[in-house]
Amino acid sequence: MSLIAVDPIEMGAPQVDGEPLSYLNDGHGLRSWLLTKDHKRIAILYLITVSTFFVIGGIFALLVRINLLSPNGVFDADTYNRLFTAHGIVMVFFFLVPAVPAILGNFLLPIMIGAKDLAFPKINLLSWYMYMLGATFGLIAIIAGGVDTGWTFYTPYSTSYSNSNVLLAGIGIFIVGFSSILTGLNFIVTTHTMRAPGMTWFRLPLFVWGQYATALVIMLATPVLAITVSLMALERIAHVGIFDPAMGGDPVLFQHMFWFYSHPAVYIMVLPAMGVVSELIANMSRKNVFGYKFVAMSSLAIAVFGFLVWGHHLFVSTQSVYLGLIFSFLSYAVAIPSAIKVFNWTATLYKGSISYDTPMLYGLGFIGLFLIGGMTGLYVAALGIDVHVTDTYFVIAHFHYVMVGGSLMGFLGGMHLWWGKMTGRQYPEYWARAAMVIQFVGFNLTFFPQFILGYLGMPRRYAAYPPEFQVLHVLSTAGASILGIGMLITIVYFIWSLKNGKRAPANPWGASGLEWRTSSPPPTENFYETPIVTWEAYEFAPIESMQVLGYPGDSSRSTQPVPKEHGTED
Amino acid sequence: MEQQREAGTLGMWWFLLTEIMFFGGMFLAYTIYRHLYFDAFAAGSNVLSIWWGAFNTAVLIASSLTMALAVYHAQMGNSKKIVFFLLFTVVLGLVFLRVKYIEYSDKFEEHVFPAGDFRWPLAEHPTAPSNVGQLLTMFIGIPPAGHTAEAPQQALPANIDTKYSDKSPYLGISGAIPEEVSKMGMAGHVRMYFWLYFVMTGFHALHMIIGIGILLVLAFQAWKGKFSKEYHSYIELTGLYWHFVDIVWIFLFPLLYLVDRHL
Predict the structure, then answer these.
(1) Which ranges constitute the DSSP H helices of A320-392?
(2) Domain A36-549 has what CATH class?
(3) Is residue A241 within 8 angstroms of chain B, CB to CB?
């Protein structure tokens, strides 16, 4: 394989309509997309559907914020319950869980390890159809009147009292769970069996480590959600009181089972985004990630510890104080691998040649916001403080800093870094930077006041509140509008760039990694010949030497790392 | 080809791990309520027919053998024997489901189906077999001689078992049991037992049905001569799945049928 640019036409790739054959023009028509087994096309299918759900969830979020503009609320309490439940269910199950793995992971994981596709391409397509089926059930549940239990479905309310579409939503979540299990299965097996020659475990990009750790959590946690939701649904039908204290059942058992999935699910959402951030920071500062092995292993450590902390959601649910102490301690322990990552990303920046292009802005945004989200996580993991802030806006602000400030920032950063690779067109840099700054400001304005609100005692899930909270609520709603505008700009220029964006070169960032050694967009088989990896992860050549080698890029950063030959490693 | 086989095997083991987590949730619920309401669980368990349970256990173990033989002949490249043993396994699976159907029907008749007209205590066991002969005649649909019509029973709310006592129903809280719980008494907890019985065996039976479907497809493909010494990984993978479903039953049988029985 050529060490420098990958010009598909020079390499003898066949042409279609004057353009080199790529996965995008290899077959036309709806049929060629809906029956595709190409992981890249499936990633695009996921991109379209998951983004649609993001917009739907975002609309519900704005409706929730509009209601909270006035102390008495705009909607009645019952409608409000359905709005925030719809926001939670859509964002958690239909956006955040599939976002990074199913879109970026699907597209990039095989390319990054030098494979032609995932191990089970048909199962990969099946997982998208499962997602669509589950999402349809979820949508029907919402359109037919919604669900009013909150996304946590706490019993016995959900099993005995709620008069809403709990069953439909439960079926939807059950099926979507299968979709993520199939994706996770594919990732684990692919990473184990399909790596290119020379691609050892410690040469894997950290993105792959992040996806692998996520897949482990998906495989072990999601089936527990499936059985929890099934038992909840069957109890709703039979009413034997298995989760109802009035009949001798135990609602805390449901909470234990639910959080045994749903706490690890937090890591399903944030671990892949952490993998993205490792790529963003390394490539945009042109340095090897500081402490590569520590960052890789910390992903696995988070995956393992993530299974042992679910009890911190039950500090006020009659759980024994001694058990609470252990869960509190273990929750603190998760902070260690998370902090290792943050410190190592920061150390990577040191003396790097940092670019402030949009992907890097998102990467830096992630570090800052995740820091706040993570540190406030320690507040709520402390037994004493948690009693004060349980079920308040403090918790809301905490997990939005992790979920939006962390996962969403990582996802958008990755989308910008790899947009050219996925579509063959670059996004407009100016607008992207502007949108990122608007989102950052809007996000902080939305959620920082919520920390204060929660500390002052504003409970979550209430449609009305005392008038003294109004100033902070109005600030928060204003922030949400700004955040919404920022998101809208991003969506518009992404769509605009599909036709009007500059053509993306094979490696617009001078980044390292196998995905930059194939054309943008890649051919259906990903590479023109099977790559043989003879270099470590994140080896960057100096920009000057790249220019000497004459890579015909379109900016000073459009360079290609030169892999060292075997035996010349220092 | 070797890489594909390795990928398939690894994938199937991981899938089985997710299945363990799935069934694990039910076993957890079972363990906790059996601990809290042991007397009720023991009483419910004694209503199940140990004859049918033991018979089905034997059937499933035999089906594991025939499945293993199918895999063996796949490795030897013996297409005809693959078809024979796959179909043999299917037949044993259907025998299992037939017995499960008889058992479920009995539970409906005895009014212990938890989502229906649940009545407790039982008047008698109207249709349980008590020897091999009865077992076989009932299997082909002939009720044993001496089968009596069910005795009149009372509906749930009127049945208050005052002698019944149990431990605190809440994990982590000790203290008084709410009035509604004690009013419902043992019957409510027996109903929980039967709910768990139907959920656990129901999910197991669902896995059996899926497995039988896969086996039929494989048998058809083997009959068409699709498998060879080199290419038979689907049969091996289905074998892993089938053995897993058997093992789940090996746990379900003692947990559900043998709660309070001694030799």
Answers:
(1) 321-349, 358-381, 383-389
(2) mainly alpha
(3) yes
